[in-house]
Design goal:
Blueprint lengths: L1 H7 L2 H17 L4 H9 L18 H12 L3 H22 L6 H8 L4 E4 L15 E4 L5 E10 L7 E7 L10 E8 L4 E3 L14 E10 L4 E6 L6 H35 L1 E2 L4 E2 L4 H33 L13 H27 L9 H9 L9 H13 L7
Parallel strand pairs: 1-4
Antiparallel strand pairs: 2-3, 3-7, 4-5, 5-8, 6-7, 9-10
Helix pairs in contact: 4-5, 4-7, 5-6, 5-7, 7-8, 7-9, 7-10, 8-9, 9-10, 9-11
Amino acid sequence: MNAISEDLLPDSLLETFRERAVIHDRENTFPEQDLADLRERGYLRLLVPEELGGLGGTLLEAARIQRRLAAAAPATALSMNMHLVVTGAALHAHRLGVEAVRPMLEDAAAGNLFAFGISEAGNDAMLFDASTRAEPDGDGGHLLTGTKIFTSLAPVWDRLIVHGRLPEDGPEAEPRLVFGVLERDEHVETLDDWDTHGMRPSQSRTTRLHGAPLPAERVVTTTPVGPNADPFVMGIFGAFELLIASVYTGIGERAVSVGVDIARTRRNVTKGIAHADDPDIRRRLATAAIALDGAVLQTEKVLADFDALGTGEAGPGTLDHGPRWFLHFSGVKSRATEAAIAAVDQVLRASGGAQYFRRSELERLSRDVRAGLYHPSDEESVHASYAKALLGEIGEER
């Protein structure tokens, strides 16, 4: 782990990313040089097995590295998360013997960048349904028509993971989804519509599909509509939730570090003491750190369990969570992002009015961390899922 982390993200490179982040946030531009630096160091191969030309990293290792990257350049980390979600899902399915994901891992080993085109306006089911239509092309593939939102890496991706709803053959037919890999062509339209409160450099623009071809050899899986444990879909859900949790935790950890530096150098003139000696300041920073430590421990536990599920090599204390996997994935994401938002707010309250200015790193972190509110699973869906697990469906006979 340490060797991978140091090779991919030396301290000097992280400082460069942090300096660039200020500019890209202000100018609302994608950090293409960050991507070039990461690509050169093998970041795109992080979750590709060594036998397929990758670095052989685990999801736990990827999450730790993403926390480190997020502390320097949150939007760069969020963008790279989408590539790691796709390759992480492929890794999970590959470990379970799914041959259809091998080309994806080989593509990533060759330096191709994957993006994530699943989110759709109004589709609260996310992975488990789609408003995008997938019409058969007559050769075993499909033509996809629909609109995907929040497509991170929109200006630069080489491959796009998408899903669409297959036409139903009759009134008794079970509705199904198809998942696969698109390449850029004239049927894929990327809008220039990203102008947001935070995470501005991620450039997570809207993508419109106009009969985009998904050839048979690029189909990864088909699944029923609704929650299911398909290895690739489960891999997407787990990798997304846990890596998202790690990014926002990394932002919170950076905020605490900045807050500590401010407290050590700032003085309370009225009390005649350094802020580092002020009980109120100390309590706020400690509260933030306590919550983030909890988020790290929860996330890393579930990541270790998830890695063990795929490899079949359970280490001491690892568990197979059975029907509760999806609850744990979404619950960890929810708790970690809420802890990160609360931690950044505590640091802001401890650090004075100067942090309200745009020149402040904390001001930028406070905007970036709030994007965690909008990533699935949101608070409503998490509570609904837990309530269903505890009480059953609404109106169910008991």
